[in-house]
């Protein structure tokens, strides 16, 4: 890969184009999901907004927050298609094997990191 | 003794700014306006939003449904800012905000984040041991209250709408806003009613 040409960088390139067409959401509030047990950081340079402590964890969709340009592309100034962002609720004690029953963690996670709970875990690519 | 060397990061920032200006991407005026807007933002905005929610059910509903709109109605320009989400505490449920990945913070309505919010210690512990963290802050939740840690990982910014403390009946919006501290808007503290305030 050649070094990026600084002259090619413009103010527009990293900005999401204003778009209003809706992006269909695969999941709905109340759905049980699992966060993909994937570790792109082992495969090379990346920028991901899915905390490591939630990979492979099961949770529940609390809310659909809307669609946002994928930060994994934005970070590298690539075209960033909008992805649906969810608020996902997790029970806290199973994550750390400590804590108090009933305490929870609520986290924003993009759709491409989610799969339905109850299916066999997908192998990381 | 010679003056301490200028940090390399400062020189890099100046080079970056010069390059952005040379390409017409930002102007000096735009930078000054952004700086002024950032300086105007303070936790007093968030505190007033909360006080209003305690007094006005319609405002409360609107604010919980659309924090961005509530901020706009406070006179905050939210154009281009991340959307604002409002986390409503309820009897038995307390919210605590952290950004484990970096230090996302609702600057539009809370101003600059405090140093501890950005510290490695807070970011790693709040999500794993929220009860230990609250205890160190001296924050005592009512018996049986569940904690919901909100890890601010992506495109929203989150503020807490805490419960109105007992003993504040009949208080004005100004009086109520005065007890809603920055820390209460993050969830590490609770707004204190008159009894606690008198005891201090």
Automatic annotation (TrEMBL), chain A:
It holds the Pfam family NHase_beta_C. InterPro entries: CN_hydtase_beta_dom_C, Elect_transpt_acc-like_dom_sf. This is Nitrile hydratase subunit beta. It comes from Roseicella aquatilis. The lineage of its organism: Bacteria, Pseudomonadati, Pseudomonadota, Alphaproteobacteria, Acetobacterales. Residues 19-116 form the Nitrile hydratase beta subunit domain. Residues 1-27 are annotated as: Disordered.
TrEMBL record, chain B:
Gene3D superfamilies: Nitrile hydratase alpha /Thiocyanate hydrolase gamma. It comes from Roseicella aquatilis. It holds the Pfam family NHase_alpha. SUPFAM superfamilies: Nitrile hydratase alpha chain. It comes from the Bacteria. Residues 11-189 form the Nitrile hydratase alpha/Thiocyanate hydrolase gamma domain. InterPro entries: CN_Hdrase_a/SCN_Hdrase_g_sf (IPR036648), CN_Hdrtase_a/SCN_Hdrlase_g (IPR004232). This is Nitrile hydratase. Coiled coil: none annotated. GO terms for molecular function: catalytic activity; transition metal ion binding. Keywords: Metal-binding. The lineage of its organism: Bacteria, Pseudomonadati, Pseudomonadota, Alphaproteobacteria, Acetobacterales.
């Amino acid at each position: 890969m050649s070094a990026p040409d600084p002259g090619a960088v413009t103010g527009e390139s990293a900005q999401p184009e204003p778009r209003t067409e809706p992006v269909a959401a695969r999941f709905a509030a109340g759905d049980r999901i699992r966060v993909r047990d994937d570790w792109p950081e082992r495969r090379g340079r990346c920028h991901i907004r899915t905390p490591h402590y939630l990979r492979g964890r099961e949770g529940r969709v609390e809310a659909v927050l809307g669609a946002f340009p994928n930060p994994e592309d934005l970070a590298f100034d690539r075209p960033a298609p909008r992805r649906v962002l969810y608020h996902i609720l997790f029970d806290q004690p199973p994550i750390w094997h400590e804590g108090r029953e009933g305490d929870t963690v609520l986290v924003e996670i993009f759709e491409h990191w989610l799969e339905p709970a109850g299916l066999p875990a997908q192998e990381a690519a | 003794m010679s003056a301490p060397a200028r940090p390399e990061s400062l020189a890099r920032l100046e080079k970056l700014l010069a390059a952005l200006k040379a390409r017409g991407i930002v102007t000096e005026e735009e930078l000054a306006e952004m700086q002024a807007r950032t300086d105007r933002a303070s936790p007093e905005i968030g505190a007033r939003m909360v006080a209003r929610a305690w007094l006005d059910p319609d405002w409360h509903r609107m604010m919980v449904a659309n924090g961005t709109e509530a901020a706009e109605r406070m006179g905050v320009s939210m154009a281009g800012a991340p959307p604002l989400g409002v986390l409503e505490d309820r009897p038995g449920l307390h919210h605590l905000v952290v950004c484990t990945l970096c230090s996302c913070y609702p600057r539009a309505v809370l101003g600059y984040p405090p140093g501890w919010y950005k510290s490695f210690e807070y970011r790693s512990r709040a999500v794993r041991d929220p009860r230990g963290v609250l205890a160190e802050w001296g924050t005592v939740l009512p018996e049986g209250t569940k904690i919901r840690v909100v890890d601010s990982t992506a495109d929203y910014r989150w503020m807490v709408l805490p419960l109105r403390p007992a003993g504040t009946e009949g208080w004005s919006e100004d009086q109520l806003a005065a007890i809603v501290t920055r820390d209460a808007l993050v969830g590490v503290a609770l707004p204190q009613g008159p009894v606690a305030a008198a005891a201090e």
